[in-house]
């Protein structure tokens, strides 16, 4: 009977350790931290009961048509946006649909009424034909996820 209690106690302690061992500040496999839980728990985010004090990301043009380019060329476009909400806009991450689409974004808060830019580079190396590459932007705004895109044609050189 004593052995059974010891096994249960040991199992319970191990389970408790496993449940509390996860650190919310753990880094992702990339250079960016995972979304900080305080962004989601902040009462100024989209989950708030009152939506009047949340940031709103208004993007000038969500799709950029780059036309025709030759395979191997890189296209860079700057997506401009404005925080049209009533509190600071925080961008937690911006990720392309593939490794050929690389975004860079402001890491500092964007004040209400202020503008910002997200630069996106599309590398057409190894690509051909019609291309539609998206970038997902995760924020503390309403809505929390925005999408911008680059579209165009990649012409492969004749062999």
Molecular structure report:
This protein is α+β, with helices and mostly antiparallel strands and 159 residues long. It has a single domain, classed as Immunoglobulin-like, CATH 2.60.40.10. Helix content is 15%, strand content 39%. The protein is built from two helices and eight strands, in the order ααββββββββ. It has helices at residues 2-20, 37-41, and strands at 57-59, 63-70, 74-83, 91-96, 101-104, 115-123, 129-139, 145-155. The strands form two sheets. Strands 1-3-6-5 form a four-stranded antiparallel sheet, with no helix packed on it. A four-stranded mixed sheet has the order 2-8-7-4, with no helix packed on it. A hairpin with a 5-residue loop joins β7 (129-139) and β8 (145-155). The longest helix is centred in the N-terminal third of the chain and has 19 residues, at 2-20. The termini are far apart. Residues 11-49 have low confidence and may be disordered.
How many DSSP E strands?
A: 8
Task: Work out the helix count.
Answer: 2
- CATH architecture annotation: Sandwich
Number of domains: 1
What is the C-level CATH assignment? Answer: Mainly Beta
The CATH superfamily turns out to be Immunoglobulins
Biggest beta sheet summary: 4 strands, antiparallel
Order of helices and strands: HHEEEEEEEE
Query: How much strand?
Result: 35-45%
- Order of adjacent strands in the largest pleated sheet: 1-3-6-5
Spans of 5+ residues with little confidence (pLDDT < 50)?
11-49
Indicate the mean pLDDT.
79
Gyration radius, in Å: 22 Å
Could you name the CATH topology?
Immunoglobulin-like
**Could you estimate the helical fraction of the residues in percent?**
10-25%
Which overall shape is indicated by the principal axes computed on the Cα atoms?
A: elongated
- Helix/strand/pairing class, anyone? alpha+beta
Measure the end-to-end span: 80 Å
């Amino acid at each position: 009977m004593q052995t059974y209690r010891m096994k249960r106690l040991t199992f319970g302690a191990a389970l408790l350790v496993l449940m509390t061992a996860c650190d919310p500040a753990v880094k992702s496999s990339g250079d960016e931290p995972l979304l900080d839980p305080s962004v989601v728990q902040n009462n100024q985010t989209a989950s708030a009961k009152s939506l009047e004090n949340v940031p709103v990301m208004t993007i000038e043009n969500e799709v950029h048509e780059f036309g025709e380019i030759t395979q191997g060329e890189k296209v860079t476009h700057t997506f401009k946006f404005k925080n049209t909400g009533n509190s600071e806009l925080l961008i937690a991450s911006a990720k392309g649909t593939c490794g050929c689409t690389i975004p860079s974004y402001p890491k500092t808060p964007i004040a209400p009424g202020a503008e910002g830019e997200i630069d996106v580079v599309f590398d057409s190396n190894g690509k051909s034909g019609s291309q539609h590459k998206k970038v997902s932007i995760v924020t503390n705004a309403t809505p929390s996820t925005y999408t911008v895109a680059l579209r165009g044609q990649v012409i492969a050189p004749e062999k």
